[in-house]
Amino acid sequence: MKLTRLPIALALAGAALLTSAPVAAQTQMKMNISIGQNSHYGVAIDTFAREVEKRTNGRYRIQNFYAGAMGAERESIEAIQLGTHELTMSSSGPVPNFVPETRILDIPFLFRDKAHARAVLDGPIGQDLLAKFESKGIKALGWAENGFRHMTNSKRPVNTPDDLKGLKMRTMENPVHIAAYKGFGIVPTPMAFTEVFTALQQGTVDGQENPLSVITAAKLDQVQKHLSLTGHVYSPAVLLMSKAAFDKLSADDKKHFMDAAAEAIKANRARVDEDDAKGVADLRAKGMQVVEVDKSKFQAALSPVFAEFNKQFGQANIDRIRNFK
Ligand code: EAX
Question: How far apart are CA 243 and CA 266, in angstroms?
Fold first, then answer.
């Protein structure tokens, strides 16, 4: 009996060896984001991982980490420069500290709407900016997005820019945002997003600003009473990869990674559209007081700041983005 089973055992062992062969040739990569999986970032990196695996027939596998499990955004960008992990998707928050040229995208009221922003980012201006990451050891795979940012706080309804005066607000670690929000009379407190919920809960800050996508995904309604639909700035996001890891890919695989990024960006933007469409109703249902504001008043309040930005960035460079068709 034993003897007759032997060939079967051998065949099974052989089959196991055969099926494990492709696994041995598999390269694992890690990707980290600062917000949860059920979000416009989560769908993006899940789509990316799926598409990379599919397009490379499983030779590359991306292991995804959510909610800052491998660090906040700035740490994650540093990690891909060092090669500790290969991939991340980040808001523009800490990005100017690595690639200062991207700062221009963070100017408030620069983009009319998401279609305008997406066209600029996908066009020559956005693509030129992506190329600037290379000298920093980063391959930028494409611009994704957060959406237009709105203000929330726990103190009072914000109807006009005057209502912002003296509010202590968490901001991203972004020099353009910090300068602009001071122009509103806000007291900016920059910190990583991974610390925001606790800071709001403990009252370290009165408020924060983020798109509906982030407010809903991070359940900020649990710690914030008032939401004002200021849409004061468009918030880009970017898919980043360690340049060393990207350079190791074959030409075909580079294309697969780029194509996977394009799919991830599509999924991200579709989710932002979805979140924008239902976010206000969702947040109202959860008890937030939502104020529609006259955005032009908020824009006017920043006139002195805009004059400063015109000097700093060059009026022509700003107009090139504003007037992009
Ligand atoms: O990337 O830091 C922020 O407020 C970002 O918008 C958020 O983490 C999503």
Answer: 23
